[in-house]
Amino acid sequence: MEYFVQQLINGVTLGSIYGLIAIGYTMVYGIIGMINFAHGDIFMVGAFISLIVITALGLTVSTGLGLTFVALILVLVCAMIIASAYGWTLERLAYRPLRGSFRLAPLITAIGVSIVLQNYIQIAQGARVKPLQPIITDGYTLMTKTTEAGEFVVQISNIQILIISVTVILMAVFSLIIAKTSLGRSQRACEQDQKMASLLGINVDKTISTTFVMGAALAAVAGLMFLLYYGVIDFFIGFVAGVKAFTAAVLGGIGSLPGAMLGGLVIGLIETFWSAYFSVEYKDVAAFAMLAIVLIFLPQGLLGKPEVEKV
Amino acid sequence: MSSGGPAPGTDLAQIFKDLVVTFLLAAAIFGTTIAFKTETAIGGLTLETHYGLAAAVVGVVVVGRFILWMTVWRKRTVAVSVVPGGLKQAIVGKLGFLGKYFGPTMLLFALVFPFLPFTDRYLLDLGILILTYIMLGWGLNIVVGLAGLLDLGYVAFYAIGAYSYALLAQYFGLSFWICLPLAGILAAFWGIILGFPVLRLRGDYLAIVTLAFGEIIRVVLLNWYQFTGGPDGISGIPRPTFFGLPFKRGEGNFADFFGLDYSSMHRIIFLYFLILLLALVTNFVTNRLRRLPLGRAWEALREDEIACRSIGLNTTLVKLSAFATGAMFAGFAGSFFATRQGFISPESFTFIESALILAIVVLGGMGSQVGVVIASIAMIGGFEIFREAEQFRMLIFGLAMVVIMVWRPRGLISTREPSIFLVRKKSVSADMVAQGEGH
């Protein structure tokens, strides 16, 4: 039971990170129907920028609590802005010229961009794994159980609390943006019918750019969280995380914001529980097999709208 | 930094504004990741600064953009090229004429290539590599180009073919010529197993499930240590024989049998012709299949699935056959790969391979057999040219992928031979060919 609770906490944390990345996939897919393959690499870039800013600020575990808090917000803002610049530029250079072209064309450029970003970071930052000393330590003990092997402690660490709460806050903010603001309205309009939206005076190009920027910013947040949680990053983390997050987006029903979050949680939980109870090596297989099973029985995903086939 | 930005005249204020935006973006992108390099040091990370390099890169970007404004984009507004429709038709006609002779010329060249005076071991190996990718491209073309199913995990079948041969040879001592068809059958069988549940899915879902399948196969190969050797792979895979005559020194071997002097090149030349033959078989079968009702059903499915269903085609069966046929050719190519290398490990079957094969198909022009050849030569050959710049090779490769795609979204060969026509054969512009959505 205690073991289960501990894994649940770990799974939810991991799922939050996947969910944050998955939102970027789902928003872009919803609006232009394209798999932004480079999104996982934006996440990786976000993690690297966070690492650079953290190192530049000299943030360590001995920094005071208040100062750490302020510094982390600064890191977050920097990473979000710079990752947004990446997202915006990529959209302009690699995707916009191909809009309205056939469907596989932007997918191929996206794969190309993904290769470029990975290798660019590998060249600019080095191929070796970058370790970061933990900045936020400690946590709360929820349960203890004494067994013959010793004491088993169920803990929720401060960093886990941080990740989960940041995710919840961002989710709420983004849901509000989509639901209430005029930007969100134009996004939803473009999602339904781009031509009609532009006839009604919505700047479609700008809306799509904004969508990419929002996705990239969220990916950067996920990058920072990943960096703080795991403490090691390299130039290749984007691929696996990206595939998992896209799986999460599809699982939750692509195009749906809560779906992306739910999908992320499901993938995170499956992965954690599979590693905990069965084998670590096959955790990816479990996550992907889950995807296949869900899609066979629920082709539109968990929260997706059923597709209406039109002639 | 938009490459297709509208350019109404050379409004200096506008250019200036654009350059400022370019500068800011370039500074954000390169200024962070190039200027500050994180280095592992004792007691944590340190930053190494490269301000000069970053400034140079930003400068190049801004100046480059300025030059573009002054030259390319300026001209575009002065002389908007309006190619008359007739002229365009004539050009297409000329290209069609060229296309008629391109294939046979290439084939002739491929046949004499090993015997040309300048052909050495290195070039021949490169030729084998290019032909392998041509074969894989043609195989994937059946799935993506003809049937319009987006497959991101094609390399899985390639891996299955390679491991089938390696394992059958290792455990049962079967020869290459028995394993080759078996590898194809096994790969096709896996194609059916995977295809059966997922082919009902829409295009993008199919893409992600095939991608996931590719990863699953790789992870299993990596972790099933007792059976596949895990990350160590399988070594000592038997080399192919010329109808039972091994390519070795000594009595009763290939060179001895034909009364030739032994040369290590014999085996390479044999491998070259083997893959050439396999590739040609792939092409031949594809072209023949296109004329069968099955092949027409594939193309019809790519164009409109609902129409297909309403005329009574069993779409699942049609998709499955395309998927399995494509997988089979990947299986053949895989067992060739295994016998050529003599060593295989999961390292060779990563996602990047799938992406490369897909890029070859799409860059060549989906559904175009000649396009695959051109794209393979351009991609693999180009990749070799940059062998010197080891570090920058993949970067250039990725950039080339983006640039070619933006330049020619329909692929290099953007006309299609119609598989059926009334009275007269006309080439069809790819714009008329529906997208490979496979929904």
Automatic annotation (TrEMBL), chain A:
Q: Keywords for this entry? A: Amino-acid transport, Cell inner membrane, Cell membrane, Membrane, Transmembrane, Transmembrane helix, Transport
Keyword Lipid biosynthesis applies = no
Give the top-rank taxon of the lineage listed in the UniProt record for this protein.
Answer: Bacteria
Per its UniProt record, what CDD domains does this chain match?
A: TM_PBP1_LivH_like
Per UniProt, subcellular location reads as: Cell membrane
Write down the Pfam families for this protein, in alphabetical order. Answer: BPD_transp_2
* TM spans (from-to): 12-35, 42-61, 67-90, 102-121, 159-179, 208-229, 285-303
Q: Which InterPro entries match?
A: ABC_transp_permease, BCAA_transport_permease
Q: Name the principal localization, coarsely classed.
A: membrane
Keyword Cell membrane in annotation: yes
The way this protein sits in the membrane is described as: Multi-pass membrane protein
Q: Which PANTHER family match?
A: BRANCHED-CHAIN AMINO ACID TRANSPORT SYSTEM PERMEASE PROTEIN LIVH (PTHR11795), HIGH-AFFINITY BRANCHED-CHAIN AMINO ACID TRANSPORT SYSTEM PERMEASE PROTEIN LIVH (PTHR11795:SF371)
Q: Which family does it belong to?
A: Belongs to the binding-protein-dependent transport system permease family. LivHM subfamily.
This protein is called Branched-chain amino acid ABC transporter permease
Native source organism of the sequence = Sneathiella chinensis
Q: In the record, what lineage is assigned to the organism producing the protein? A: Bacteria, Pseudomonadati, Pseudomonadota, Alphaproteobacteria, Sneathiellales
